[in-house]
Amino acid sequence: MQELVTVIIPTYKRSKVIERAIKSVLNQTYKNIEVIVVDDNANFPDERKETFEIVKKYPSIIYIANSKNLGGALARNEGIYKAKGKYIAFLDDDDEYRE
Predict the structure, then answer these.
(1) Closest Cα partner for 93 from 61, 68, 67?
(2) Among 16, 46, 63, 75, who pairs with 10 as Cys (CB 3.0-4.6 Å)?
């Protein structure tokens, strides 16, 4: 059995590019992956709404909406708290994994 890998994607004001990051994770040949998107857009309701609309297209993704802006490091920590994977990887919202 393949070990579960958790990929945490914190996002802040990048709803226009986050879907590329999400798709790059889901398109990996290794399939036992848990994806957690941590939305750090507490002060930007339009960004939060756009991000949520994108993420909800992928029912397997865990979505965390921070109640206040935490910054990158603490947003990653929020994802770690929810992670179930044996291994944890991080992906910035404006980046992508190669297949």
Answers:
(1) 61
(2) 75
What is the DSSP code string of the chain? -PPPEEEEEEESS-TTTHHHHHHHHHTSS---EEEEEEE--TT-HHHHHHHHHHHTTSTTSEEEE-SS---HHHHHHHHHHH---SEEEE--TT-----
pLDDT tens digit at each of 99 positions of the chain: 899 999 999 999 999 999 999 999 999 999 999 999 999 999 999 999 999 999 999 999 999 999 999 888 999 999 999 999 999 999 999 999 987
* pTM (2 d.p.): 0.95
